[in-house]
Amino acid sequence: MRMTSAEHHDRRSDNDSPSAEEKRALEEIIALHHSWVRGVVLAVTGRADDVDDVTQQVWMRLWQRRDQLASVTDLRKWLYTLARNAAIDAGRSSTRRRGLWRRFKRLWRPGRSSPRPADDLITAERRKITLRAIEALDEKYRIVLVLRVWREMSYDEIARMLDITPQAVETRLVRARRMLREKLMPEEKK
Amino acid sequence: MNDDSISDIEIAINRLLDGELDPTERAEMQRQLLRNPDAHAMLRACGDLDDRCRDAIASALAPGSDGARSAPGRSWSVAVAAAAAVVLGVVLWSVFINRPAVPGHIAGKIDNPTPATIRGIELAVDRFDPAPPGQVITRPVRHVDRIPVGLFDAESGQVKIILVDHEQERPEVQWLDL
């Protein structure tokens, strides 16, 4: 059977019934944090095709653990752990099938995968090479790189989230950039 | 310097790029860059690299974008995926066609219910079609996706699933009760 959440809520009056307030709170958390959470999922799994599926699981886990939210002192750090664990679990399960589905979906929706002009293809190829190089980094380097370069978080913010020192963040970033430069810009060397 | 060592100038360049220098340090760094062409070249390379990484990551995560994912129709694996999907589609179609009618367009199956959590829910919905906020998806069944975790409400006997449409700029949360 199917009903809206509001109808569902109206039917129930016990304490474990999710309130409209809880739902609003969750939606707010998702709106505020979905962007970097997806970045973390990408960094941990190293596969863009899995990001949507794994991020869905992150929000499901958040909903399951919503009772813990009141005692969470650092929401970002808590969400980071949630996202990382979900991404690791996804890596253990069969992710290949999901990737196939995604690819099929792109075939099935030609509007989103129609042939591009040559420039776009070059750009796409360049992006693919860059992503592969990022994926080839160790996870500890990928995460700091994504959070810094893409979400522009400070060393302190990343350090708090990952529970490491700002110096460790800095060292990982320097090494990540160096490895990428060597791979993507060999002519530049160091 | 060995391969793993990090020079002071490399650290300083990274800090400059990341906005981690205070104004005095930044001024000093800029003076050093003027005197040191190698450091200047490294700064430029690091800046270009950041732009390139930012662009690649953004394209991979962009709502509704294929970004830097595999280009369509140019890989044997895509053909395999399509063939597998067609076979799977036929199988699923035969399953769903024999299933009792379900109100609306959502069909759910609980594989392994436990008191608090269930795993293995198969939903026949198009997750990414836009639907009005607060309503369940009402579009016709178009493809099957697998959502490994749902919440089982023992009292109502319902399964609660949260779907977040990442193809919207602001994610749209949908609540499904099966």
Structure characteristics:
heterodimer; A: 190 residues; mainly alpha; Rna Polymerase Sigma Factor, Chain: A; Arc Repressor Mutant, subunit A; 2 domains; 9 helices; globular; disordered N terminus; B: 178 residues; alpha+beta; 3 domains; five-stranded antiparallel beta sheet; 39% helix; 20% strand
Number of strands of chain A: 0
- Overall, the morphology of chain A is globular
The oligomeric state is heterodimer
Structural class of chain A: mainly alpha
Summarize the biggest pleated sheet of chain A: none
How far the N terminus sits from the C terminus of chain A, by CA atoms, comes to 62 Å
Give me the CATH fold name of the largest domain in chain A: Rna Polymerase Sigma Factor, Chain: A
CATH architecture of the largest domain in chain A: Orthogonal Bundle
* Uncertain spans of chain B: 66-78, 96-154
Q: What is the string of SSEs of chain A from the N terminus onward?
A: HHHHHHHHH
Mean pLDDT of chain B: 60
Q: What proportion of the residues of chain B is helical, as a percent range?
A: 25-40%
Mean pLDDT of chain A: 78
CATH class of the largest domain in chain A: Mainly Alpha
Number of strands of chain B: 5
- Put simply, the count of helices of chain A is 9
- Series of secondary-structure elements of chain B, N-terminal to C-terminal: HHHHEEEEE
Uncertain spans of chain A: 1-16, 94-115
The figure for the number of domains of chain B is: 3
CATH superfamily of the largest domain in chain A: RNA polymerase sigma factor, region 2, helix turn helix motif
> Which percent range describes the beta-strand content of chain B?
15-25%
List the helices and strands and how they pair.
The complex is a heterodimer of chains A (190) and B (178).
Chain A: H1 5-11, H2 20-45, H3 51-64, H4 75-92, H5 96-108, H6 118-136, H7 139-150, H8 155-162, H9 166-184
Chain B: H1 8-17, H2 23-35, H3 37-61, H4 76-97, E1 108-113, E2 117-123, E3 145-153, E4 158-165, E5 172-177
Antiparallel strand pairs in B: 1-2, 2-3, 3-4, 4-5
Helix pairs in contact in B: 1-3, 2-3
